[in-house]
Each structure stands twice: as structure tokens, then as C-alpha cells.
């Protein structure tokens, strides 16, 4: 009995265990090597016949072999009984690392909406919403768009029937809200709007607006300028300058378009602002008395201002996005760029 022939027994034992096709065959193998008269058992017994000084080392070797063969036997037995219980062995490589659970992030337009809303909430505005499928009455009539007036055409409306349409602006929420609430009213209203436009890098048939409405006694244009300027400086930076240009909207009088100085060139003129130094950022004005009348407010009791901005446009300016169509393509290679926490 020498260590080489003991190792030879181990090799044969492991081979026989691996090759055993069923439980009975495996049991035979066990008896042959580990049984009372088995080869490993016999080797252990024969230790008494070798010189005393070699016994400890030999005993250790045979014991470790016996342990390894027993472990291999146990494993094989478990495998065979698993298979016989009808369980399929795992077909893949169980040592491969697992797949990370996929996590997404907020859509860039949701983030921008939340950021803008957060600023207005800090100024005392609360959020109001209205339906996307809207009555012509709220989208146009109650906003002082005369029937058959060309200004209705300017908004390229998707009509569902003569009275129902997809809202072309978030302004209908003004009247809906005022019908239900007496002044003071201080709301913003973010939401999706629809216009029958041919899509191109700066036009989309679906986009997002944020409406603002503030009504109370003695609200003036100064209050409008104050709140709008505060918002622009908080969102785009203190250095932003703001200007109001006269404009026309049927539901505000006077009306204005609001520009901010171009943040890319600080007003010098560049490709972002098309060399004008200014970026158009929203429409605004003092609520027209007819709108108060439609809302059911007491005549001449209140004044107020309204403003409306394109959320997509603001997101494009803020983040240097050049194609409005990107927002609704659901391309994760685009959207993933804006996730705050990427996983
Ligand atoms: N609803 C207008 C538009 O879509 C914007 C606006 C809102 C203008 C509120 C004035 C006051 O163009």
C-alpha cells in the first residue's frame, strides 16, 4: 500500500461515480469503494501493516480521499434523485452573474414640468388640470374667440365633431377653473395639447403647455411681469433679461409675447436665438373682461393675468435639444440621457 495506489483508487472511484447512470449503479459503486469490504475501507484497515512512522501521513491521505469520494457520492445521489423527482436540471450556466434589474427614469418632459411647477408652487400657485378632449366652448368660445373668426384656424384644430375637439391650448382650464372657484385664483395647469401640424424639427401635432392664471382684486400688468420674470430668472439663471412685446390673443387684453435674453450668447446673437439675442418664451396678458363674463364672475369686480408657455420648447432651450419629435419617439437612447439616476 503506497500513496500512489491510494490516489489511483480515488481516481477510479470518482470516475465510477460520475459514470453511474442510476441509483442502483451508484449504490454498487458505493459498496465497491466505501462499503465494509470496499477498497477505501480496506486501505484504511491496511494502515496497521505499514511502518509506524508512515502511518499518520498515510491515515490523513486516505481520510481526505474518503471524504472527497463521499462528497462526490452525495452530490451524485442528489442529482439522480432530483432528476427522478421530475425536476429538470438547470439548463444554463449557474455560475454566470445574474442580470441587473432594469430601472428607468422620468421622461425629460415630466422632469421639466415638475421643475417649472416647483418654482410656481413656491410662488403660491397650485395645480389645476382639464381634459384633453375638450368642448369647442372652453377651447374657443369662452376664451372670446368669435365664431368663424380666423384666429380659430390659426390653431389647426383636430375636431371630433362640431362641438368637441382636442384642445389646442391649456387656456380652456382657465374658464373651467373659474367656473368652480371664486378669486383669489392662482393656478398653473400643465398638459398635453394638439394641433394639426405637419411634424418637423420644431413642430409636432402633440406637445405640452403650462398655463398660468392669477385673478384677484387689483391685479396689474406689474404683477404679471413680476411673476414671469421671477420664474425665468429662477429657471434659467439670474442674468436672464426679460422683455414684453405687444401681441394679440383673443382672451387677453393687453396681450404680450415674452422674450428672454439668449442664454447661449448673453444677447449677442447666435444660432440658438437666430441672431436676435432674444428667445420667445411664452404668451401672456391681462384676462379679457369677456372671459370673466363667461366664467360667471361679477362684472368689473376682478382683474387678472394669464400666461402660457410651451414645455417642449423650454426643454429644448434648456437642454439643447434640436428636434421636438424626439420627445415622443420613446427612444431610450435619447431619453436615457436625461435620467438623473442611471442604473
Ligand atoms: N394659449 C396661448 C397659445 O397657445 C398662450 C397664452 C396663454 C397666451 C395665456 C396668453 C395667455 O398660444
What do you see in this structure?
The chain is α+β, with helices and mostly antiparallel strands and 343 residues long. The chain folds into two domains: 3-80; 108-338, BirA Bifunctional Protein, domain 2. 39% of the residues lie in helices and 19% in strands. The protein has twelve helices and nine strands. It has helices at 3-19, 23-34, 39-45, 55-84, 108-122, 136-139, 150-153, 172-180, 221-236, 289-295, 311-319, 332-335; strands at residues 126-127, 133-135, 164-166, 185-194, 206-216, 242-249, 252-261, 278-287, 303-310. The strands form two sheets. The protein has a seven-stranded mixed sheet, with helices on both faces. A hairpin with a 2-residue loop joins strand 6 and strand 7 (252-261). The longest helix has 30 residues, at 55-84. The protein starts with a helix and ends in an 8-residue tail after the last helix.
Short description:
It is built from twelve helices and nine strands.
Secondary-structure map with pairings?
Blueprint: H1 3-19, H2 23-34, H3 39-45, H4 55-84, H5 108-122, E1 126-127, E2 133-135, H6 136-139, H7 150-153, E3 164-166, H8 172-180, E4 185-194, E5 206-216, H9 221-236, E6 242-249, E7 252-261, E8 278-287, H10 289-295, E9 303-310, H11 311-319, H12 332-335
Parallel strand pairs: 1-4
Antiparallel strand pairs: 2-3, 4-5, 5-9, 6-7, 7-8, 8-9
Helix pairs in contact: 1-2, 1-4, 2-4, 3-4, 5-11, 8-10
The structure holds phenylalanine.
